[in-house]
Design brief:
single chain, alpha/beta, Rossmann fold, 2 domains, seven-stranded mixed β-sheet
């Protein structure tokens, strides 16, 4: 069977295949430079697995959630030890989920679900008997505390929350567990990491606003390119949270004096939502249909929130949580692309072949990226005419126009 473009690009994003021997089994994992721990399995993950093997009987568990699964090491390893497990993998990064699916196939492991989630937001199952996580320090203390507060609602009585956290956040984790009424069954550390095995604590009323723990603050922004301002809720762990970066500014500079009232717009990697909200303000138009797409579910969700706050109806906002433009089915009058941190060849090969299909006849494409990456994309983008470009401190934004049907 011929490989899809996404499968071919995934191979090119693979940095290394490692052999992992654990509990008498040999597993293989493909890692990526575009994801956490790209050269070896993280020390914290190895520590958590070692503690689990020594402290609990893995065979007694039946339903496991690997929360923030990354490339799937924790969940896949436990399922190899106990093949009867119902395994559920979640992550906010669509590329991590792609690698988790790939690594499941690589090791002949079946997962019951592999889904995009922000923490427990949108989780339907409330009967896990084991929740696993290598908790990311970069998520921020408010997000981590919300996880400690919420896990009790998704764990069976007698179940276990097993996680590893960096040493600097050990006290935050311990305080939150005690406050929730959870018994700490085991605690073990190294100079860099600490593992906790915690029982079910007290359930709390779920947050009505599931994004609230991620919100860093509400900020006002005034682009220097137009006499307007706007405000956004911005989140931890995404750039441009309190000022506008050069990538965003280059696109704004380009669009400020070239805007037609398109009503069907695709924005790839919308970040905090600056560009969509800017378009709403500059066009004074509430009937624009926005399609938001990209790897990071947090960016898609906070952009949706900010558009709603500026009067865009939910029915006019569509989202695709995906690593690949090839998975977006429609075509658009205007496409705005903010290429992400993938390696240069893979980024070019993911973007350039899809532009003719995604762009309507006589449609337009705006790409904002650093200068070297943008030049590579332009060399491979056939069937488009370069109409305009703006340079901004090492970044460029270009406007491409599609001519006729390709």
């Amino acid at each position: 069977m011929k490989e899809s473009q996404a499968e071919q690009t995934l191979k090119k994003l693979t940095n290394k295949r490692i052999e992992f021997r654990f509990a008498g089994s040999t597993l293989y994992f493909d890692l990526s430079q575009a994801l956490f721990s790209s050269f070896d399995i993280d020390k914290g993950t190895k520590l958590l697995l070692t503690v689990l093997l020594k402290q609990i009987d893995i065979a007694k568990f039946s339903c496991v959630l690997d929360l923030g699964c990354g490339v799937g090491v924790l969940g896949i390893t436990l399922k190899r030890i106990n093949p009867r497990l119902k395994l559920h993998l979640t992550d906010r990064d669509a590329l991590a989920l792609d690698f988790a699916r790939h690594n499941c196939r690589l090791n002949n492991i079946s997962a019951d679900s592999i889904e995009g989630r922000l923490g427990f937001r949108g989780t339907d199952i409330k009967g896990y008997d084991l929740i696993l996580s290598n908790l990311p320090a970069k998520a921020g203390a408010p997000v981590l505390i919300s996880i400690f507060d919420q896990y009790n609602s998704y764990l069976k009585p007698g179940g276990l929350f097993a996680f590893v956290i960096v040493k600097t956040l050990e006290k935050v984790a311990h305080t939150a567990l005690i406050r929730s009424g959870a018994a700490i069954i085991h605690r073990q550390g190294t100079p860099d990491h600490t593992v906790f095995l915690a029982a079910k604590g007290n359930e709390i009323t779920p947050l009505q606003d599931g994004l609230l723990p991620y919100i860093r603050g509400h900020f006002n922004f005034q682009p220097p390119l137009k006499y307007l301002s706007y405000s956004l809720d911005t989140v931890y762990n995404l750039p441009d949270f309190d000022n506008l970066g050069y990538q965003q500014l280059s696109a704004m500079a380009l669009l400020s004096d070239h805007l037609n009232p398109e009503h069907n717009i695709l924005i790839w990697n919308p970040g905090q939502g600056h560009l969509p909200v800017y378009l709403c303000r500059i066009l004074a138009e509430k009937r624009i249909k926005f399609t938001l797409a990209g790897r990071d579910l947090l960016g898609l969700e906070v952009t949706r929130r900010n558009l709603a706050a500026h009067g865009v109806a939910d029915c006019l906002i569509e989202s695709y949580h995906t690593s690949w433009l090839s998975e977006i089915p429609a075509s658009y009058e205007l496409i705005i692309l903010f290429p992400g941190p993938e390696s240069r060849p893979a980024t070019v090969e993911m973007i350039s072949p899809e532009l003719p299909r995604l762009t309507q006849p006589d449609g337009e494409v705006v790409i904002a990226a650093n200068n070297p990456l943008l030049q590579h994309i332009l060399k491979q983008s056939k069937g488009f005419q370069l109409k305009k470009r703006k340079k901004y401190h090492g970044y460029q934004a270009v406007l491409l126009v599609k001519k006729g049907k390709i």
